[in-house]
Amino acid sequence: MNSIRLQNVSVSFPIYGTSTRSLRNRIMASATGGRIGSDRNDRACVQALSDINIDIGMGERVALIGHNGAGKTTLLRVLSGIYPPQTGSIRVEGKIAPLFDIGFGMDPDGTGYDNIRLRSLYLGLSREEVERRMEDIVAFTELGPFLDMPIRTYSAGMQTRLSFAVSTSIKPEVLLLDEGIGAGDAAFMEKANQRIQSFIGQAGILVLASHSKSILAPYCTRAIRLEHGRIVDDGPFEEVMTRYEG
Ligand SMILES: Nc1ncnc2c1ncn2[C@@H]1O[C@H](COP(=O)(O)OP(=O)(O)OP(=O)(O)O)[C@@H](O)[C@H]1O
Q: Nucleotide-binding: is it a keyword of this entry (predicted)?
């Protein structure tokens, strides 16, 4: 059984070189971004997530919605373990498949093959599982001889191919997705979209962040709406979307 529980989770980022007051004055009227505050040392900071409480159970398909800078990506990063929460607690039951920030944890000086192994281990595969999946991953990338070269020499789209192939080679239990996966060419994006759809079908839990109702609607049954780092609505997908659009 897969589940996610966040209790009183907050994340803030310090902003160096700016006084709280001048930043506050400039940002007062802003409709985007997190809440501006100050930390214990009176340094300016952006409160990207404030006091987040969420319970997600097995089988749930959750949309994360909200304005630019509302905190959606930060929340996905907390769920995937990239950012530890500064306060509160997080418990995730199940293997996490993050399909965003997919270049995270790659070594630019390593070859394609090195990075397939590195990222697979980061995703929780054993060495034997990595070798068993290697042939499929290599075929999916279509990178051929480039896999022997350091990935710093790859184009953005080639890097997307590599990291996407690895990230979708595991059986997803808790699937975390941000809209748009990067710079693939048309042929790759079609292949990638097909794979994402079967991936979503297999996942125990889906959390999908997007601004687009047409991306979310086919998959999501529940929606959580963030505003300046706080949850302001949570419920059945259509109801939350109607209130958001209204
Ligand atoms: N690494 C960081 N350093 C400083 N501030 C950050 C950092 N990451 C995010 N923030 C701030 O946290 C707030 C939330 O950002 P986040 O990327 O989570 O928003 P979002 O809802 O995903 O936005 P968008 O829809 O525009 O992608 C914003 O005000 C942003 O400026």
A: yes
- What are the structure tokens assigned to 102, written together? 């997919």
Distance of CA 124 to CAs 4, 58, 145, 166, Å?
Answer: 18, 20, 27, 12
ipTM of predicted complex? 0.97
Domain boundaries, the chain: 3-95+209-245
34 CA to centre of ligand 1 in angstroms = 7
In this structure, the residue with its CA closest to atom 25 of ligand 1 is: 68
- In this structure, whether the domain defined by 3-95+209-245 belongs to CATH 3.40.47.10 is answered with no
Distance of alpha carbon 21 from alpha carbon 228, whole angstroms = 19
Distance 33 CA to ligand 1 centre (A): 7
Pocket lining for ligand 1, CB < 6 angstroms:
13, 33-34, 46, 48, 66, 68-74
Atom of ligand 1 nearest to the CA of 209: 22
**Closest Cα to atom 11, ligand 1: which residue?**
48
Expressed in angstroms and rounded, the spacing between residue 114 Cα and the centre of ligand 1 is: 31
Tell me the CA–centroid distance for residue 209 and ligand 1, in Å. Answer: 13
User: Rounded to two decimals, what is the model's pTM?
Assistant: 0.84
Burial of 88 (0-12, 13-18, 19+ CB in 10 A): middle
- Render pLDDT for 25-68 as a digit per residue (tens, 0 to 9): 555 545 566 677 766 667 778 889 999 999 999 999 999 999 99
Q: How far apart are CA 186 and CA 122, in angstroms?
A: 28
Q: What is the DSSP letter of 168?
A: T
Three-point CA angle 196, 197, 202, nearest 5°: 95
